[in-house]
Amino acid sequence: MNQTETGALASKIKAIIRDVPDFPKAGIIFKDITPLLADHASFAEMVRHFAGKFRGAGITKVLGVEARGFLLAAPIAMELGAGLVPVRKKGKLPYKTVSASYALEYGQDTLEMHEDAVKPGEKVLIVDDVLATGGTAGAACDIVEKVGGKVAGIAMLIELEFLKGRAKLAGRNIYSLIKY
Ligand code: AMP
């Protein structure tokens, strides 16, 4: 896909994503991807686009971050011919886990992954819907690296550039389709 086609896809998907002001709290504009999920043609095009960006990079696992990341990571993993790995909030995964914590505005949060989900040396693509401050994606990278995996890329449907998440993820291979 060339730059013009990518721009057209980004504009189309931007128009489908719904802004919900003051959710989950005052001052946040929530980027609601459910209208995109419900639009088969656009969702499929988006999935093919993201898979195309990372095809040939030797990725064998696609890691989806709870919860909306699951919805994007699963079809991208299928399209890439890679396995799917869920990364969840603390206490949700049934087997032995590795974890990483990250700072929130107030306090901290912890993400977990099954310890055998990524093998040492495996190349992993991390997928989520929104890159905001970068804390979530940073913790996902830490978890992958704790078990010896390699973060080959970070794929985000939406990047909120004003929150400077990229700075927190310096040196990482980050691709986002839609930027605000
Ligand atoms: P952060 O750790 O600050 O980069 O936040 C990223 C996580 O929070 C992702 O899992 C997103 O799904 C979610 N998130 C942050 N900001 C928004 C937003 N404006 N709309 C929807 N989801 C968001």
Write the layout of secondary structure elements.
Blueprint: H1 3-16, E1 18-21, E2 29-32, H2 34-37, H3 40-54, E3 59-65, H4 68-80, E4 83-89, E5 97-103, E6 108-114, E7 123-131, H5 135-146, E8 150-159, H6 165-168, E9 174-179
Parallel strand pairs: 3-4, 3-7, 7-8, 8-9
Antiparallel strand pairs: 1-2, 4-6, 5-6
Attribute tags:
alpha/beta, two-stranded antiparallel ribbon, seven-stranded mixed sheet, binds adenosine monophosphate, single chain
Short description:
34% of the residues lie in helices and 34% in strands. It contains six helices and nine strands. The mean pLDDT is 97.
What does it look like?
The chain has 180 residues and is α/β, with parallel strands linked by helices. The protein has one domain (3-179): Rossmann fold. Helices cover 34% and strands 34% of the residues. The protein is built from six helices and nine strands. The protein has helices spanning 3-16, 34-37, 40-54, 68-80, 135-146, 165-168; strands at 18-21, 29-32, 59-65, 83-89, 97-103, 108-114, 123-131, 150-159, 174-179. A seven-stranded mixed beta sheet has the order 5-6-4-3-7-8-9, with helices on both faces. Strands 1-2 form a two-stranded antiparallel sheet. Helix 1 packs across helix 3 and helix 3 packs across helix 4.
Q: How many β-strand stretches?
A: 9
Kindly state the percentage of residues in helix. Answer: 25-40%
CATH level-3 fold name: Rossmann fold
Ligand roster? adenosine monophosphate
Largest sheet: 7 strands, mixed
> Can you tell me the residue ranges where pLDDT is under 50 for at least 5 consecutive residues?
none
Structural domain count: 1
Question: What would you call the quaternary organization?
Answer: single chain
Shape: globular
Strand line-up across the major sheet: 5-6-4-3-7-8-9
Structural class from helices and strands? alpha/beta
How far the N terminus sits from the C terminus, by CA atoms, comes to 22 Å
Order of helices and strands: HEEHHEHEEEEHEHE
